[in-house]
Specification:
This protein is mainly α. The chain is built from six helices and no strands. α1 crosses α3.
């Protein structure tokens, strides 16, 4: 028997994602308490609705969230709150849906970031810095410009991840392809 998400799990997950996104947008920080409570709630809800199989799905999602964002965190590309947010969201989504949601969130962040860079007129400087970082990585050195410096505008990455994950969750839970028509995947 295959365990599937249901509304009892999806609605609290969406509320959590909204709260985390709002916190990241407002303060550029996602609270440890919020992430911890959400991770526990996600695991508990999956256990209640799916037994050991549901709990396994939840723990797999948490592990995937930590694993997928650990390297970007270690490189200074995302904050610790984003990693913990992905793990907590994984407790609701499971590993497979988390990967889809994170992928969508990363693409959204790339589009928003590229638009922001192009709009700021600093595209050349950013591309030169990126090229220098890639050369350093290729030569086995730690890149210097991946972390945001003082005075650098940053993007609320948790917000972008939340939008991607919420979209994947809504699609998986309520099968929105019936009203999306040709745009459904």
């Amino acid at each position: 028997m295959e365990y599937a998400l249901n509304t009892l799990v999806a609605v609290p997950a969406l509320i959590f994602m909204f709260l985390a996104a709002a916190s990241d947008l407002r303060a550029r920080r996602i609270s440890n308490k919020l992430n911890f409570c959400a991770a526990l709630l996600g695991a508990w809800l999956h256990f209640v609705t799916g037994g050991v199989e549901g709990l396994g799905m939840s723990l797999g999602g948490m592990t995937a969230g930590l694993g997928l964002l650990f390297v970007p965190f270690a490189a200074g590309m995302v904050g610790g709150g984003d990693v913990k947010f992905a793990a907590a969201a994984g407790s609701f989504l499971g590993a497979g849906l988390l990967c889809i949601g994170l992928g969508a969130g990363v693409v959204l962040a790339g589009v928003v970031g590229a638009g922001s860079i192009l709009g700021s007129g600093k595209a050349k400087a950013v591309m030169l810095g990126l090229w220098a970082d890639l050369n350093m990585i290729a030569s086995g050195q730690r890149p210097g410009t991946l972390k945001a410096g003082e005075g650098t505008r940053t993007m609320p990455y948790g917000l972008m991840l939340a939008v991607g994950m919420a979209g994947a969750l809504v699609h998986a839970t309520w099968r929105i392809e019936t009203w999306l028509g040709p745009l459904s995947w």
